[in-house]
Amino acid sequence: MGDLEAVLNNAARARLSYLISGENAALIEYQSATSQIAEPMRQLTELTKDNPVQVDNCAQLDSATTARLQAWRASVEAKQAGKPIDLGYFIRQNKEFSSHAAVLTAAIRSEENRLLHDRTRVARRGFLLASLVMISSFVVALLLLYFLFRRLTAQLQATEKSEQEAERFRLFIEAVNDYAIFTMDSEGHVTSGPRLRFANQE
């Protein structure tokens, strides 16, 4: 957009300079500037082709620019033919073209700003959602680690308690000289034994 406005302003300034002075250098500058208008217009149309509103805006700007160039060409040809030039008329005409182009370019900018705002809002929403997912995943991972730690701690405590009970039982057995060993079922009935051991037995 900026490039298009720049070349249009350069062309308008060079044309007015030629109409006033009739100098060949001003004519060459005008011709050079007008030859550069088509490319930024094409780029603008290409960049906005996915938006119907912008397609319409660009079509209006292209039409206005074409009419502007035709009026410029007619005034330059009149100057080259030596016809009298009404500078006041051409200055007013140039202001009208500039005002119309300014309205169209403002509409294009407004639509681009709206699209940018919408895209920024969507991107912000996506960022917040991704952040929420990451935070949730982190919290879940912490909870899993906590429960795993609790489970491992409980297992270690149970193992340690079992080892301590086994050690106490071993010490108890080693401290007893005379004892009888028998087994019982879950209902309390003796299922085998007793086997007796006395201190004087080898």
Distance between the termini: 110 Å
The general outline is rod-shaped
Helical content band: over 70%
In total, how many beta strands?
2
- In sequence order, what are the helices and strands, one letter per element? HHHHHEE
Instruction: Write out the strand line-up for the largest beta sheet, numbering strands in chain order.
Output: 1-2
Radius of gyration: 47 Å
Q: Which consecutive residue ranges, at least 5 long each, have pLDDT under 50? A: 196-202
What value does the average pLDDT take? 84
What portion of residues belong to β-strands? 5-15%
Structure description:
The chain is 79% helix and 7% strand. The chain is mainly alpha-helical. The protein has a domain of 131 residues. A hairpin with a 5-residue loop joins strand 1 and strand 2. Helix 1 runs antiparallel to helix 2, helix 1 packs antiparallel against helix 5 and helix 4 runs antiparallel to helix 5. It starts with a helix and ends in a 5-residue tail after the last strand.
